[in-house]
Amino acid sequence: MAKRLAYTITHAPQRLIAGLQTRATIGPCAAIHELWHQFCSNVGAKQSYGVCYDFMDGVYTYLAGLDVKVGEPLPDGWVSIAVPEQSFAVFEHNGDLSTISNTWSAIVDSDDGIKSIEGEAWDHSAPTLEVFPSNFKNGGGPVTIWIPLVPKAT
């Protein structure tokens, strides 16, 4: 029997994340790599997020961003998205960032990933998050993947 992917359940407050966005396809995507390169050239060492939302036919919006306050002026070209207060299943990705799509596949497709959480299901109406610690630019810290949850229908 395969070992279940390790995760924690965390309840997070509402947050506003702002940054640069692109449309991307599921799986490894050069557009996301380029977006992070552009984003990181303008931002210091701060906790940052990859926000995935607006999924349709294998394409979605990916935003590389930071926490901001409501009403805070944004740099030219930046957009913001509100992430609602919600419970999340939090999984860790350890290893080279080029392999994060493998971790995503294990979370989404494996019976030992998101499907194994009793009483909870993926809330596809809410954004998912990749959370990068402030020291990530220098190779520190794992990336965490936050999957929004809702109670499973009975």
From TrEMBL:
Domain of life according to the entry: Eukaryota
Pfam families (UniProt xref): Cass2
InterPro entries: AraC_E-bd, Cass2, Reg_factor_effector_dom_sf, YobU-like_regulator
SUPFAM superfamilies: Probable bacterial effector-binding domain
Domain AraC effector-binding, residue spans: 5-150
Protein name: AraC effector-binding domain-containing protein
Natural source organism: Aphanomyces invadans
